[in-house]
Each structure stands twice: as C-alpha cells, then as structure tokens.
Amino acid sequence: MKRILVLGAGLYNARVLVRLREAGFHVLAVDRDPEAAGSRVAHEFKAIDLSDAPAVLRWAEERRVDGVMAVNDFGARTASYVAARMGLPGLPPEVAEAANDKGLMRDVWKAAGLPIPSYRVVGSLEGLRAAAAEVGFPCVLKPTDCGGSGRGISVVRSADDLEWAFDFARPYVKNDRFIVEQFLDGTEMTVETISIGGRVTVLAMSDKVKPELRTRVATSLNYPADLPEATLREVESLVRRAVLAIGIADGMAHTEVIVTGRGPALVEVGARGGGGHIFHTIIEAVSGVDAPAAAARLLTGLPVELPPLRNNGAVYRFFNPPAGILKAARNFEEARRVEGVLDIGLSKRPGDRVGNLENSLQRAGFVVTAGRTRREAVEVADRVESLIEFVVEPAA
To answer: Which of 324, 269, 272 has its CA nearest to residue 114?
Structure first.
C-alpha cells in the first residue's frame, strides 16, 4: 500500500482523502488546523502549517511517504520542496514557483510565444499608475501570488479606481509584487488536465457565468463548455502548450482561459487540480477519470492508465443572495433529494454577511449537479436554485 501525503485537510480536501482511501492508498495529511475535517478521515494526521516546508519534510521523512500531493496553491511549493529532498516524483522547485507567481508565469508564456494579455509587474501605487497608463483601461489588478480563490483581484475601469484596487489587493500580496494586465472581454473557461510523461490530456472544460462586478467572481461553471468545436480544439491545443511551457510534465493542472473575438488567451495555471469540488467530484462526473487516484499514482511512481474519456454534463453553481446579514437558508434537504444533485451545501452561517463577492471564499453556498448532457445538468441546477430560499436582513 503506497503512502501518499496530502497537503491540506480542510472541508473540501477531506473528500480527496476519502477518494484516496477508496483507491487503496495509505493516506497521511497535514493542515494547520488541528480540528480540520480531514483529520478524521486520513489514516494519519498532523497539525502542521503546510507552508512550513521544513516541518512537513521532517514528518514526511519520519512517516516514509511515497508521494506528496498539493491540493491548493499554498501547498504547491512545499510539495515540490519535499519531493525534491526525498527523491520522490514531483514538480521541480522552479516550476512550482512559476505556477504560483503570475508575473513569472506570464514571463514564461511570453517567452514561449503564447497568447497572453499585455502586462506589467509593479511593487507600488506609483508603479501601478505608470503601468496602467501603458496597459490602458480597463485593466485588471491582482497580486502575483495570493494563494488562489480570486483574492485581491479587481477590474480597474479608470485612473480614479487605481488606489481602491491597490488597497483591495494589498492584504493578499505575499511577495510585494502586483500584476496589472489588459482586460480581455470574452468567455472565461476553466480547463482541467493531467500530464503523464509529457503528454497532456484534457479532462474537463467549463465556461463561466460572471456577474458584472469589478471583482469578477464566477457564479456558475457549466460543463462541457458551450463553444464551437473548432474553438474548443484551439483552447485544448493552447492549454497543452501552456502547461508544458510552465513545466508540468507529470501532474494535474487547472488552467483558466478567456476566449475573445481574436481567439483564446491564457489567464493563469495552477499546478494542482481545480479547487472546491472540481478535483474530487466534477472531473469524474464529466470525464469518468478518478482524478485524485490518478494523480496519487503518478506521485507515488505507479503506472497510470486513463479510461476512455466521456464528455458528460455538470454544473458548479454558487448561490448569491442579496447583500446583507444571513438570517436563514431554507429547503436544502429537499434540494439534496433532487435527482442529479451530487452535493449541495451552505458556506455561510446565520449572522454572516452575504452578497458581497470580494472573492470566491465569500460565496454563500453551492450545488454540484450532473447529467448526461450539459443541458440536463443546467436544468437540475436551475431547479435547485429555485427551491433554495435565503432570508437576508439588510446590513446596518
């Protein structure tokens, strides 16, 4: 039985641990929260901050693990560090770094001649003002390294918005680097891939629904993406080149793309499976591939054989009640019984503020649905959303 160490054991990641146990792995996990949901799922658990790479390495060596898996951006560098020092399969440190710093990521893709927005990396508000003038408005400001989930990202419509956008991003900046880039108008997509020996296989592609907010947080991911076949093939080709350019020859990747009137352009890539339910639930619902098990086999040196790929429908819908204080959320149990619902949950509690989508962590709740086609999955999600009732009190 191979021993796989998972970096992260929060509520969503606990499902990854379950899938790995079901696949026959001995599962170890670390998380800074000693009461993390996954602490009760893993065969072995230790409360360690997953960004503390030396501490994770000591425990990994003590437990003689066969592989290390990052399930979020925060763990990618540590997984690379531990794997390199233990002689295990994994990403080289420079690859993990480029997959976490959007400035370095853009530099790699620019050198490879891949389509990306015009961009500048800055370290101050004064630098931002000069860069925005060069890039032009509207533009997008984000931390180069924020740990994912859309933290600190906003669309800047004019010079008057720059100071607000800078202050909005600053709490999430980990390396004193911001990136300002050209705003691209088009259909945003997510693309899930697995690389095996330098061969990149596309497992699932969605298009996003986004409200007209300057933080641009998605409210629905719909699979498969509803775009012309020729466009989808172009996106697949671009993503394969982007993943390999960064250096992900073996492992999962989550890539985001915008399809504009001039074709697809790259937004970013994560050196791990998609967040939330994507890695452990949606990829399999769409493609038939057990992504956590396949990734664990790669990381522990076992052979990986993918089944014939399917292209089923799925929806990752996020509830967005009116802004205010949540008093109650009703009919969740009734909605859970609707055929085609894979999971449903509430992310906020009574008394919490809702309706302020500063980043994806502020979503009030979710439903994951599946169907033989995209249309079937969308119909289930629409039905569920019509059942759910939020009672919200206006904030003072």
So the answer is: 269
| Tokens read off for 272 | 């791990």
CB atoms within 10 A of CB 162: 20
Strands 26-31 and 44-47: parallel
Question: Which are the contacts of 4, defined by CB distance < 8 A and separation ≥ 6?
Answer: 20, 25, 26, 27, 28, 65, 66, 67, 68, 69, 296, 299, 300
Decide: pTM greater than 0.90: yes
Helix (H, G, I), strand (E, B) or coil at 213: coil
- 35 contacts 97 by C-beta, under 8 angstroms: no
Q: What is the DSSP letter of 323?
A: S
Task: DSSP letter for 8, please.
Answer: -
Q: What's phi and psi for 154, nearest 5 deg?
A: -150, 155
The burial of 35, by beta-carbon neighbours within 10 Å (0-12 exposed, 13-18 middle, 19 or more buried), is given as exposed
Neighbours of 259 (CB within 10 A): 22
The confidence band for 215, taking pLDDT boundaries of 50, 70 and 90, is very low
- Compute the distance between CA of residue 238 and CA of residue 342 in angstroms, rounded to an integer: 31
